[in-house]
What we know:
The protein has a domain at 22-226: Queuine tRNA-ribosyltransferase-like (TIM Barrel), CATH 3.20.20. 45% of the residues lie in helices and 8% in strands. It is built from 14 helices and ten strands. Helix 9 (223-229) packs antiparallel against helix 12 (309-332) and helix 10 (251-272) crosses helix 11. It is globular, with a radius of gyration of 21 Å. The two termini are 28 Å apart.
Amino acid sequence: MGDMPTAGLRAFPWDITETEALLINAYDFTRPKYQAVINNGWHPPRDIQFGNRPLLVDSGAYYYWKENQIGIDPEAILRIEIRSKAHVGVVLDHPFPPDAKDKARRIDTTVRNTETMFRAAARGGHSFELMPVIHGHSRRALRHCLERLSRLSQKHRHSAITRLGIGSIAPLAKQGNSLLAADILRTTRELLPSAHLHCFSMGSPLLMLLAVYCGVDTVDSQTWIVSAGFKYAQLPGTYATRLARREYPTYSRFRRSIRSFARQLRELSESEGFFTKDWTTGAKLDLTSFSVCEQYTRSLSDLRRNENVHNRACHNLWVYNTEMKRCREAMQTGKLEEFIGARLKTSRYAAAFEIVRKRMGRKTVVPHNF
């Protein structure tokens, strides 16, 4: 709600970037400044101009992953989620950092909140779908957590788990333990071979590909807007580039960076048919022309402060969406492993990908709903 227009977006970017699904945060609407919004006929699909496309409303527990206690009430979160008109709501879990000493207690809190929200939803006769969240950094912990969640689902919803979130993954990947993150995803897929799995906050366009390879159906990220605010622009298969004049000691170096980014754009256009748009009009740009690529890169760059954050945000979101489409195309032709391996081969995730590939016996665990 705060990204347009205060963070620099000139318009909601969903249509122009062909975004298919959206995650919003229920916790944001527990804050006093949003109470008037909720009390005044709050309807997120309309208010954020997303129509009837899939909308997931998160509980906001990620704000508490460094805290020992969660300072919000699960039933209050449920009421906000139901009023949001979203398709799916997330239970109030309690994620944890890799070095947490109280992981078992936090998992207990997650299970208790799950039962509270399942029971409240059933008591109110709501057909609203709640998605439980699994936590654990070992196969034993994951299995035990899933068994408890499954019993609750059978008790209160009279059905098996068909949709599951996977939490406490992002801190692992951010701290360099992408292999353990991959193993958690792969193990969860093995434990629930036919469920829809959602992985929270697999932030980069590279890391989300590793998640897909491990069997995840959907991921979410806010990196597209956060990195844009820090003047970073993404490209498929590479790390982000910071496009800001102040980052370079001379203007000539800044110009060389722009030309390098433009060359990568043209190479992607020639090798993969990659294209971008004018992020004001939505017109498709012909990136086979180097001058167009260079001009486009300048539209992503900042000479003064943060004047082109809208363009960078739309560009980054476009890269995410096109990468997921490429994943689908590769999956349909039986080349998912080849595609993801090529994308990750020069990244920090290459070693994790190779180990996971060997552990799976060179057989990809295909996301069933992807």
